[in-house]
């Protein structure tokens, strides 16, 4: 497994474990995150769209999002390196408490700098993600 793929897996594991220290180790200090949870029209949770910058703001938003949704667990379904600095992966987000979870598929594009995650952008469809890579 490549260094970038390992970093994505480590970040998702840290997110799932609510491990702030481990998250900081994965994220570049200048990280930028767009749309942590794509809007696909699921009425069971509030859409979360926006842009967040810097480790502190990104980690606070991820915690707030998880609390507001009643819990989120992310599973990576596919993962591929793109270009010199990216990883594109499909994920399944299990949203809500254990007894009332909904599942949401999405795609994320992570970009790297100095071996750390510099930016993330999340999409509702693979085609939207690939258009961003191509453009």
Structural class: alpha+beta
Mean pLDDT: 88
CATH fold-type name: Nuclear Transport Factor 2, Chain: A
Intertermini distance: 27 Å
Number of separate domains: 1
Extended strand count? 6
Which ranges are low-confidence, i.e. pLDDT below 50, for 5 or more consecutive residues?
none
Radius of gyration based on Cα positions:
14 Å
- Total helix count? 4
Instruction: Give the class-level CATH name.
Output: Alpha Beta
In N-to-C order, the SSE pattern is HHEEHEEEEH
Q: Report the major sheet.
A: 6 strands, mixed
Portion of residues in helices? 25-40%
CATH architecture: Roll
Strand content: 35-45%
Give, in spatial order, the strands making up the sheet with the most strands: 2-1-6-5-4-3
Written description of the protein model:
By secondary structure, the chain is of the alpha+beta class. The protein has a single domain, classed as Roll (Nuclear Transport Factor 2, Chain: A), CATH 3.10.450. 33% of the residues lie in helices and 39% in strands. The protein contains 4 helices and 6 strands. The protein has helices at residues 3-16, 20-26, 55-69, 126-134, and strands at residues 27-34, 51-53, 72-82, 86-95, 102-113, 116-123. The chain has a 6-stranded mixed sheet, sandwiched between helices. A hairpin with a 2-residue loop joins strand 5 and strand 6 (116-123). Helix 1 (3-16) runs antiparallel to helix 2 (20-26). The longest helix is centred in the middle third of the chain and has 15 residues, at 55-69. It is globular. It starts with a helix and ends with a helix. The model has no long low-confidence stretch (mean pLDDT 88).
């Amino acid at each position: 497994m490549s260094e970038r793929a390992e970093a994505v897996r480590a970040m998702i594991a840290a997110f799932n474990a609510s491990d702030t220290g481990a998250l900081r180790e994965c994220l570049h200090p200048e990280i930028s995150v767009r749309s942590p949870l794509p809007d696909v029209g699921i009425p069971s949770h509030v859409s979360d769209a926006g842009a967040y910058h810097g480790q502190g703001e990104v980690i606070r938003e991820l915690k707030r999002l998880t609390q507001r949704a009643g819990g989120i667990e992310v599973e990576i379904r596919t993962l591929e390196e793109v270009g010199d600095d990216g990883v594109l992966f499909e994920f399944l987000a299990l949203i809500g408490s254990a007894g009332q979870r909904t599942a949401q598929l999405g795609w994320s594009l992570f970009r790297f700098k100095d071996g750390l995650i510099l930016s993330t952008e999340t999409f509702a469809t693979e085609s939207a993600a690939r258009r961003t890579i191509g453009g």
